[in-house]
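Example with several molecule types.
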Amino acid sequence: MSVISLGAVDLALAALLVLALAGLTLWARLAVGRSLLIAAVRTVLQLLLVGLVLQTLFDHAQLGWVALMAAVMLLVAGYEVMARQERRFAGVWGYGIGTATMFVSAFAVTVLALTTMVGPSPWWEPQYAIPLLGMLLGNTMTGIALGLDRLTQAVWRERRVIEGRLALGDSWLCATSTMRREAARSGLMPTINAMAAAGVVSLPGMMTGQILAGVAPVEAVKYQILIMFLIAAGTGFGALGAVWLASVRLFDQRSRLRLDRLHPGRR
Amino acid sequence: MDRLLDVRGLQTAQLGPLDLQLQAGELVQITGPSGSGKSLLLRAIADLDPSRGTVRLLGRDRERIAPTDWRRQVAYVPAETAWWAETVREHFPAGWHPDQAGSWLERFSLPEEALGWEIERLSSGERQRLGLLRAFLNRPRILLLDEPTANLDLENTRRIERAVRSYLAETEAGALWVSHDTLQRGRLGGRVLEIRDRRLVA
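Resulting structure tokens for the full complex:
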């Protein structure tokens, strides 16, 4: 493996491109120059910080530190899922449903992959564990957030139909079957699309990174296939689990629709 | 003999505690200013909204009856019935045949082809008549009618009034009918209860 190390001058040259773009937007009065520069500075600071954290983690490879890092990643992803909900659940459920299903899906799939497929030694080797978990969390997060948002929006919009069906003696499962199915499907679609387009429309980021790092393309492709399958499984199980938990929470033990358990819309 | 419907100490955030009894075959009208909780009362009895107190059907406690069974026997019909599929037939139990409903289609002045009609093309009168017919198919013992004729012309209103009356006479079911139409009050007859300050008064 050989990597061409980047120097400060190389990065500065790339930064010049961004500065040039900022100048052009200023001239064209697009009024985005400021946010462009702030975003660029944030990229530098955040990535440097995470690079330092990862370097420290790799140098002091202990299960405790890896677990702590994983926990922080999970909690941030859980918050992100909640923040993306138009109508989120009140109380601990608002944060809990997304976080719990990500814990089960992303964590379980990562641990399974580390122990049975990739097999580093020790199995929690941060060089493998953290990037794997990061990719899984990033994707399950999107799937779970989409699925939950679809479900709560649809149930809110269709509450008259749901209650009409309950009043006719339908079970809550029957009264929400279309909505639950559509929500689960919308959580799965991004992953299915990504798998279908992989390599044809876009070169997946991880594979590209490995190739840049000098890995033989066929090796990189094998990793990418593994990751794609893990992501599909994690996102799918996560979205299904989240939609199921959320729909259970939307009804009480007498199968009454409990929209009072949702916060009103933010708009 | 047990009362058909026996409500005691029913209470929700906006209503009660209140008592209400209904005899077999009886129709009781519920009136009251808008916002007084007429719909909430019916929804609480149908167990669509949480409530405290006891509700008994022929002596059996509501809590001991599965929610789906309860709502089939205690049928809530809103002012605007809900439709979710494309044609009328899809909203009726699978395998159901018009003969089973006896002459109900006819009594609602609906032709047999009505089952194939598209929901989009129904008039509000047709919607309400079909919505009520759909509820009748469960053979409910109680009808909770929440202004079922609110948006209808007189002809459709009277069709529904007659159909409900004949359903009650035939099946010994009872009905709570929310209405604030004074002419309708006269036509329907029976006891009239008003909701005032969270309570029911005669």
